Amino acid sequence: MTTFALDTATPDPALAIVDGDDVVAETWLPRIPGGGRRMLEAAHELFGEAGVTPRDLDDIVVGLGPGGFTGIRIGIATALGLGQALAIPVHGASTLEALALGIALGDGSGEAAGDVPGAPARGEDTLVIPVIDARRGQVFAAAYRVSPTGDFQEVVAPAAWDPDALAMALAPIGACAVAGDGADLVPLPPEARRAHALADRISPVRLVQRVRARAGRPVAPEYLRLPDAEENRLRRLREEAPA
Fold it and tell me: What is the reported pTM?
């Protein structure tokens, strides 16, 4: 089965082509404004480099967030548009869960989170904390215990957190590995350890693995808080309301 996967929820938009268990190609777009809007152009280049055409695809997997609202919408619209044009299924997966799986498997570092000082030994369940910069002084985060086979147990549900509040929530958890583009915004408690910085990027391949582990979701944005436009509308209503 040949799958095209993409995630545009963070400032590091990424896309990949996976054939069965093999990663045919994977790339990240430069961290520049509007990077997510260039997904179709980047996909065209990726297909050419991999020797794959859209007609070779069997399905599409897209990251649902949380993350940047505009980026999430661009990714979902791209995936649904391609899926409709090609008449193939489109699956969603949690961006936080994909990041968590990458932390547990040591994406980019050659080491699993179990090799991080203070984290569980390799071969044991790993407690990982994926953290995405949510702007507005907040982060999107959750806590998962990931087994060596990739099974997930949710320890702390995904939510938008004040960084100090997240640090307090992590304190009683014990040894854990933390990564993501928002990880450095959180004052880590003593037993929490920063995973390798290369694990901060979301890998679309991990999205595919979550879907194939039957953890896929309906294709709908997972914002975890109100979009900026709605927050602004509510603020205007409060300001205009009679005293």
Answer: 0.88
Chain segment 99-153, per-residue pLDDT in tens: 999 999 887 665 666 555 444 455 567 899 999 999 989 999 999 999 888 889 9
d(CA 111, CA 104): 9
From the list 61, 8, 79, the residue with the least C-alpha distance to 207 is: 61
Output the CA torsion 41→219→70→82 (10° steps): 20
Which structural domain, as residue segments, surrounds residue 145?
96-200
**Domain shared by 150 and 72, yes or no:** no
DSSP state of 31: S
Q: Provide the number of structural domains found in the chain.
A: 2
Nearest by Cα to 216 from 92, 101, 95, 99: 92
Q: Are residues 70 and 154 in the same domain?
A: no
Within a domain: residue 213? Answer: yes
Residues 166 and 107 in one domain: yes
| Integer Cα distance of 178 and 100 in angstroms | 9
CA distance 17 to 89: 15
- 243: in domain: no
pLDDT of residue 119: 47
CA triplet 175, 179, 180: central angle to 5 degrees? 155
